[in-house]
Design a protein that fits this description.
7-stranded mixed β-sheet; 2 domains; 502 residues; Spore Coat Polysaccharide Biosynthesis Protein SpsA, Chain A; Rossmann fold
Amino acid sequence: MTQDQTTDPGTTPEHPAPWRPSRTVAVVLAGGTGTRLGLGIPKQLLKIAGKPIIEHTLAVFEGAPEIDEIIVLMATGHLNEAQQIVSKAGFRKVTKVIEGGDTRNATTRVALDAVGDEDCNILFHDAVRPLLSGRIVRECVNALWTYSAVDVAIASADTIIQVDENECITDIPVRATLRRGQTPQAFRSGTIREAYRRAEGDPNFAATDDCGVVLRYLPGTPIKVIDGSDENIKVTHPVDVHLADKLFQLAAAQVPRLTDHRAYSEEVTGRTIVVFGGSYGIGHDLTELARRYGAQVFPFSRSSTGTHVERPEDVEAALKTAFDATGRIDHVVVTAGILEKGALTEMDQETIDRVLQVNFVGPVTVARQALPYLQHTKGQLLLYTSSSYTRGRADYALYSATKAALVNLTQALSDEWAELGVRVNIINPERTATPMRTKAFGAEPEHTLLAAETVAQASLDVLISDLTGQVIDVRRPPGETPAATVPTQTERSASTTTTTVG
């Protein structure tokens, strides 16, 4: 169990009680039925960003070094679905998946029985808050060295009003002292057990959360408040589903980077990579980079090999060429694309068909043809979008639309192919210096564009990672060499490209 025993000296009680917990248990409360979402399944089983909400939530605790054990309290009648999710994802910290109670308080009592009588830390967290950060988990656990009850909350950006039964204002509390509660709520086990023991003797007992039980029945117990985050939303209403999905796309997470040339060579040597669109730009730079590290790379394009990604026979022949030469295909990359500017109503049908075929039908065709090869190696399909996928751009509406479609395709395929062990991700670079961009927009100041080789490096990092279903934003790091200048090998190894996952 990893715990940092440092606390803020300004908030430490004068005589903190010694505390030696045996372990730290995360209790994931998944008893909701999704009635407010109008669903036929519990909302925690709804998929966002390619995975069930509860899987995202469990992954946070699985990856938190402060957490030793996870117990899931699932809605009645849905234990099998939860158990399948745990098994499929390989969550090793989950020790129990059991049914919750009829109410939140009853569920807490079930959880306390499941935890047992040993002194331990317990974190109660809503399963439908999938965007919980590791920072919040860490601060909650750390605070339990000093406090026996911990809540998570954020400041209210809105004025809070109090009303009567006629919906008329009766009071407007001072906003500076108000907070909006979130989860997890963390406790020393003895504290929360004692609070519920006392509550059992109250015929009017009712509470909406566990800190409320401590506040009411152990009034002398300080409850420390940890700063939550705006992203730690609870998926309750239909709009929350869309917000959570978008937040996953935008959430920042570092893509793993290796330390030196030797580390990359050890990872990449012997792998076979097929690049569609490999004659110039990002595809060309990725081809050259991967070859330097020892990969066997097969680039295909319209200009160099006469390969059209929208033609199944061309894609099949390209994949067969790579497989016949090496006996395997580990990664398939699709950088091929075209950008035609102009108002949609002014485009001729031939241009419209070409944009749709190359930018969307092409990746779909490659995905279908590549799956048997990638399934054999447990490999990865890597696609590319652009910042225009988040909002359609005037004068290149079709390009924007196809790039948005590829994001959805990535997330859907990552889900479909998860059981096959095949990963699917998509790179979202900012404005990049490529021949395609120059053709569409003309000459632009070098310092405003991302170097294609920077995107290639980020692409290689994603290919050798365990990520799947992710949109990887690639941005220019501070002080990056101008796009038109190719860095030396030494400079390349020392690069600190910022890549974020959403």
